[in-house]
Write a structure and sequence with these properties.
This protein is of the alpha/beta class and 270 residues long. The protein has 13 helices and eight strands. It comes from Leptospira adleri.
């Protein structure tokens, strides 16, 4: 089976404290990315394509041409998604450099960036520029931590989806425990997609597991993309959980192939 991993990161530090890993992820240089690429080479070779989430919001301001050549040689079908510093006063020039760097998508993370309702209009401005330039918009859709009530990422997703209709919007992590709410948004907005990473494996064995099966089937599996969230959720474990989930809930072979590979290829026009 062909696999495209929509959600892979390249921090190479190993620590039992996930915040230590996230901190490195937020500060990776182009040289660091090369180290991460080598560290996860064996994992990447198990796929036919990857989307690398670049969490350093200033990474594209430096020259990443060398890293792009390396990743091209390792995995020809790849995309880059960049976390955006939407608060910059020079946002238009900043986004021009992001586009020139070769990023195919932009990313917002409500928890890491502490995005409150007062920031929504600034996020929307960036999304409007992205739409004009045919960039995919990714919004973190996880649910948890002590910030879960302070920064409502699904409320942000609804705000953006109400205004952005022409470019795909991907809810990374599918909304977590709020998978049904995320599904309702996707059902009413045909440009909204869901990424399976982290949340699906996390909720296996809980009552929420059935909600994931219901939601994905209800949407139709044409706008669902497989992601591992490696190294935060190890690729091999994520893959095993996903395939067992699809078998348990009797997803068709076509549905599985779409989620695991075809949808991401179509999304990025690779």
């Amino acid at each position: 089976m062909k696999i495209f991993d929509f959600n892979i990161h390249l921090p190479f530090i190993e620590d039992s404290d996930v915040n230590v890993v996230i901190k490195q992820d937020l500060n990776l240089s182009s040289k660091d990315l090369s180290i991460g690429l080598k560290k996860y080479n064996e994992t990447i070779q198990k796929t036919e394509g990857i989307n690398v989430l670049l969490f350093n919001p200033n990474l594209h301001l430096e020259d990443i041409a060398g890293f792009k050549k390396e990743i091209q040689s390792v995995c020809p079908k790849y995309a880059l998604t960049s976390l955006v510093d939407f608060r910059r006063p020079d946002i238009e020039n900043y986004l021009e450099k992001l586009i020139a760097s070769g990023s195919r998508a932009i990313m917002f993370n409500s928890y890491l960036q502490e995005i409150s309702e007062s920031d929504f209009s600034s996020v929307l401005k960036v999304c409007q520029i992205a739409q004009k330039n045919n960039l995919v918009v990714c919004l973190d859709g996880s649910y948890g931590t002590a910030k879960m009530f302070d920064f409502d990422n699904l409320k942000l997703a609804c705000f953006v989806a109400d205004k952005i209709r022409k470019t795909p919007i991907v809810l990374v992590h599918s909304g977590g425990k709020r998978i049904l709410e995320a599904a309702l948004l996707a059902l009413s907005n045909p440009n909204v997609w869901l990424d399976t990473s982290f949340s699906l494996p996390y909720y296996i064995g809980s009552s929420v597991e059935l909600d994931f099966a219901f939601a994905y089937k209800k949407i139709g599996c044409d706008r669902i993309v497989f992601g591992s969230d490696n190294p935060y959720c190890l690729f091999d474990e994520a893959l095993e959980v996903h395939l067992a989930f699809f078998e348990k809930y009797k997803f068709s072979q076509t549905q599985i192939e779409n989620v695991m590979y075809n949808n991401s290829i179509n999304l990025f026009a690779l």
